Amino acid sequence: IDVLAMARAFASNLMAGRIVSGASTITQQLVRIKYPDRLPENPYLRKPVEALYALKLSAHESKPNVLEEFIQLVPLGRNRKGFFAGARFYFDRELSVLSCEEQALLVVLLRRTSMGQKSLQKRLDQLVERSGEDPALQKQCGWQGRKKMTFPVSYRFYRSEQEDESEQTAGRSDSPRESEEQSSSDLEAQEHSDGHSSDAIAHGYPHSAPHLGVFLFHSMGVRGPVSTELDAALQSEIQAIIRSELAMVKAKGANQAAVIVLEKSKDADPVWDMRAMIGSSDFDGQEGQVNGALAVNDAGSVLKPFLYALAMEDLGLRPGSPINDSEYSITDALHREVYSPRNHDLRFSGWITLREALAGSRNVPAVRLIERLGPERFYQLLKEAGFEHMQEPARDYGPSLALGTGGATLFEIALLYGALAAEGEMLPVRIADSPAIQFGQRKRIFRENTALLIRHILSDFKARRGSFGNRSFLDFPFDVAAKTGTSKDFRDSWAVGYTERYVVAVWVGNFRSEPTLGVSGARGAGRIMHQIMRMLYQDSNSHFRYPDNWKYLNICKRTGLQAGPNCPQWTEPFLPEDVPPPVCDGHHEASQSNATGILHPLPDQVFILDSHRPPDSQAISIEIRSEAKCSYRINDRTKPMPADGHLHIYMDPRPGRYRLELVCDGNVRQARNFRIED
Question: Are 498 and 506 in contact (CB under 8 A)?
Answer without folding.
Answer: no
